[in-house]
Amino acid sequence: MPDTAEWWEGYFDERFIALYRDFLTPERTAREVGGLLEMLMLPPGAEVLDLACGWGRHSIALAREGFKVTGQDLSETLLARARKRAEKAEVAVDFVRGDMRQVPWTGRFDAVLSMFSSLGYFLSDDEDLKVLRAAHDALKPDGLFVMETMHRDHVVAAFADRDWWDAGDGSTVWVEREFDAVEGVSREWTRWRRGDATGEKYHELRIRSATEWDVLLRRAGMVPVEWYGDWELAPFIHSSEDLIVVCRRAE
Predict the structure, then answer these.
(1) Is the pLDDT of residue 142 over 60?
(2) Which strand ranges, in their side-by-side order, compose the sheet holding 197-206?
(3) φ and ψ at residue 60, rounded to 5 degrees
(4) Per the domain annotation, does 176 fall within a domain?
(5) 169 burial level (CB within 10 Å; 0-12, 13-18, 19+)
(6) Distance, CA of 156 to CA of 104 (rounded, Å)
(7) Count of domains observed in the chain
(8) Domain for residue 3, yes or no?
(9) Cross-sheet strand order for the sheet of 243-249
(10) Cα distance between residue 114 and residue 222, in whole Å
(11) Phi, psi angles (nearest 5°) of residue 168
């Protein structure tokens, strides 16, 4: 077992982009942003925080829709990519570097987003509560928080301990997984080969049920108001591939 206390600090690099770019297509982003627009119904010019924004997929698309967007992420590699993409798209997004447990704004945003299962990195309820409370405090009174994540029912039902694919950059990628049913932690080893070059990445995530998320969100001062199972806004059920919850900040 590798030392994974801070696996996320070096994980999100150029190789991460190469591995995931084929899955995170412009079409997927457009579908997700369309769902967000319908869920949130925000007025033009509303302020949005994209927490753990990555290379700015949602931030840039939302800025195109007329929102004032801030993107926060720990990875300077992903932020540099995001800034270049925003410049190319000719939109203004304020991309800032920071740990998502420490959001440096209070009462500023109409909406805060947590997309692509970016909660769960820290494995413990206490650490994820820090993220949720930071998001809560960054919201205006009655502001909205949206979280998209994997959920335990689907992960367990669709669990595959091995997988592989050919990536768009010519690499062949192999994945091995294990799921700790007591801790609720998914562990994943990703290995790749491109010609003579090889590499490996490891990550682990705390995977919660909707019931567990409901408890944690309420402890953070968030009141869930809608639960969806996909970006077409189908109701969330145990077999849904995604868990998308819209919460309102409670005082």
Answers:
(1) yes
(2) 162-166, 172-180, 185-194, 197-206
(3) -70, -45
(4) yes
(5) middle
(6) 36
(7) 2
(8) no
(9) 93-97, 68-73, 47-51, 109-114, 139-149, 243-249, 222-228
(10) 13
(11) -65, -20
HEC assignment per residue over 65-81:
CCCEEEEEECCHHHHHH
Alpha carbons 55 and 215: distance in angstroms, whole number:
30
Same domain flag for 140 and 176: no
Residue 138: both structure tokens together? 């960054």
Q: Assess whether pLDDT exceeds 60 at residue 196.
A: yes
In this structure, the answer to whether residues 235 and 195 fall within a common structural domain is no
Q: Average the pLDDT over 126-152 and give the result.
A: 97
pLDDT tens for each residue of 66-110: 999 999 999 999 999 999 999 999 999 999 999 999 999 999 999
On whether the CB atoms of residues 138 and 105 are closer than 8 A, the answer is: yes
* 246, 224 contact by CB (below 8 A): yes
Residue 178: name the closest of 145, 155, 148 by CA. 155
Tell me whether residue 241 is in a domain: yes
Query: Are 15 and 68 in the same domain?
Result: yes
Is 245 a member of any domain?
yes
